[in-house]
Structures are given as C-alpha cells and as structure tokens.
Predict the structure.
Amino acid sequence: MSTGEVGAAGLALSMVLVVAALALSRWQHLRLERDLVVSVVRSVIQLLIVGAALKLVVDPGAWLGWSWLWVVGIVVFAAATVARRAPELPGVFGIALAANAASAAIGMAVTFGLGIFEVSGRTIVPVAGMLVGNAMKSGVVAGRRLVDATAQQRAEIEARLALGLPADAAARPIVRATLRTAISPQIENTKALGFVFLPGAMTGLILAGVDPVQAVLTQGALMYLILGGVVVTTAVTTLLAQRRLFTADHRLVPLARSTADQ
Amino acid sequence: MALFAFEQVTVAGVLRPRLDGVTAELPDGGVTAVAGPSGAGKSTLLRCCNRLEAPDAGVVRYRGEDLAARDVLAHRREVGMVFQQPVLFPGTVRDNLHVADPGLDDHAAAALLQRAALAPAFLDREAGSLSGGEGQRACLARALATRPRVLLMDEPTSALDRDATLLLERLMGELADDGVPVVLVTHDDEQRGRVADAVLELREGQVTHEHR
C-alpha cells in the first residue's frame, strides 16, 4: 500500500464498512440494504467504464480531439443536471449550457493559455471535470435562489417597476443577494483549504506518491480556477436568468416557487 | 376624453378570465372607485392601467392613446401607483424617495412628505420603523416623487385603522382637487360613498355597473 496503488483486493477490502452499514440497516430495519448494494455495484461499474475511457484519452498517443469532445460532453451533461435540479427556472437548460460553457472556456483558456498545466490528454478532462462539476453546483444554487427570491419579493420588485425603473434595476437588489449566496460557499471552501479539509485532487496525488509540496501547488492552482469558474457560472446564470423573469415590456412573469429539495 | 378606456379587454386566469371582455371608461378627473367583491378583477384592471399586467385581448387607452404603443417606463412615471400593503425598500424614507428620483434634494423631499401629511423629520426615519399608516403615506410620497399626472391606488387603506384611512382619503381628495385624478380600488362601500366621484363596478371579471 505504500505506493498508494489499490488493487482489486484493496477495493474489495474497502467495502468492509459497507458490509457494516448493511448489517446496521438490517439490525435497525432501515430497509437500505438494496439501495446500498445498488449504489456500490453501480459506482464500481460507472468508475470502471470511466476508467477505461480515460485510459484511451490519457494515452500519450491518443488524439486530443477525444479529450475536447469529452469536455463538451461534461458541459452538456452538467447543463442537463442543472435543468433537472432547478426546473422552476424558465429556459434553464439553455442558461446552464451557456453558463457551464463559459466557465469551462474561460477556465481552460487560463489553465492552458498561461501554461498552468500543459495541454495533454492527462490534464484536459480532469481539469474540465473539476471546473464544471463545482461551477454547476453554484449554478443550481443561483438559479433556484433567484427564482425563489423573485417570487418571495414580488411586491418589492413591482413597487420598483411601478416607479418606472427598468427590469434590471428593479431586480438588482435580488440579483446581488443571489450572487453573494451562490459564490460565498466557494469562498468559504477556499478559506478552509488545507486546515479544515484536504481536497480530493491533493489527497489523490499524495496517495499516488507525489511529493506533498507539488500536490499542494497543483491543488492550489485547481482551487483558484474552480473559484473563478464558480464566479463565471454564477454570474452568467444569474444575469441570463434575470432576463427570463421579465417580459420585454418590463413586467414580471408568473413564477412557481421551488418546492423540491436539491 | 376618458382617462383610461377599456375596449373588450380580457386577461386570462387559471380557472376563468380575470377580466372578461371589459369595455369601460374612467373619467379624467376626481376620484374614481373601482368596486366589487374579492376576485372581481379590480386589481387586474388597475394593474392594466400602468402595464404591470397586459391584456391577452382588447385595447387599453390612456387619454386616447393605445397603452401598448407608449414607452412603458415613461408611462409608469406618469401614472403613479400605491399598493395594498405599504411596500417600502430597505433604508430611510429619504432613500425610498431617492429610488423614485435620485436627484431629489431635501427641500423637495420635505415638500413631498408634506403632501402626504408627514413631517420633514420622517426623511431620516428607517422605513421599517414606520406604522402602517405612516408607511402607506411614505409610499404615497414616493409615488408622487415621479410627479405623476394620475395616481392608481389598490385598496391602500385595507390594512389601516380608521384614523389613518380617513387621513389617506383626505389626501386622495386633495390630489384630485390639484388636478391629479385618482383611480381607487376598494371593496368598502362606505369608503366609496365618502370619496368617489365616479364608480365602476366589477363582478367575476365583467362590468356590472358604471356610474359617472
């Protein structure tokens, strides 16, 4: 285990605690046994498929186009996920697609344009996955929060509209609050980095035998890229969504408050 | 010429139309009460007057001009509105007036407060600390800050006690006398008797009575 490599036996041993969870579920009649087994089997299959596909992409001789196609897939899949989680937002899929694409494009341009990582099959997909995966969550928060706050503060927005303010000015206080709500968690994460939690990329690198200082530098770079990606996605989501909440003649559209949990 | 003319105006609703082919005229002067029971479509009709709602069919005219063809933002500044509940923005009363007119100086602001029967000292009061009646009068002062030529009021006294109600009614009358016609939505027959120069009655989205 000193090299950090995990074999099939190691993977199997890591399921000891899953067996303990199964026992607990049975003992307490939680009826979670089936879900537990399904989640473990499903995750193993999904990870094996992704691992096999990644092997093709990260192979030094592989065509880089496959990696970029994968990135497109990540962006589309993330948009579909946002659309599922924030259905109350009008035009949510298109908004999420634009927001995720913007954060991926800007993040990748900075990452590779400034040479933080070299352009290779080994870097493109993981970096894009981390960027979009984190940005997507803040996009969901931004979309849901904007719709909820708009429905809740409808009277205040209409009072501003009635004074002749245009839609963007009438919505500005809510847009600001939404941006703060969606961006703040990532700022808190960045503050807590290192002391409170050791992020996945760094942990993975250290387990894989990379020098901890090198692992820290890599994680730091990724974290700041993620923070930037979160800001881009949140801003694009909020500003595009705000337009969908008003008609062209500055009227508020009827909205359903979100009821589903995230 | 009518202040507002409704020509076969329909606004769709969930179970039935909120306005169902309404044809009516509101006179250009005095206080006009739009009366009727809850759900009659009174507020919808009022909101059509400043385009917070748009008809699904029909035409609304403002002093002869098709409302849909007017610049909506300029129209809303010309046609002020006071809502059922006092909706004040965070900050002081002065901050609230500045939302309506960012260039307003304290002298002009105090004059607006005076028209709404509030002392100049209210400028520095936090909006959240006002009573219901004071809040509604602060909303009236804020609506007047855009120098409207017409005032729409959507049951503005429904949350107020009798003294605050009578004071606001007096202010409506003063505005109308000063040449700013008031369109007042009310379901209170006594209030209608006290303030209205003309009445439009609605029931289930249709005009049942027009008295001028």
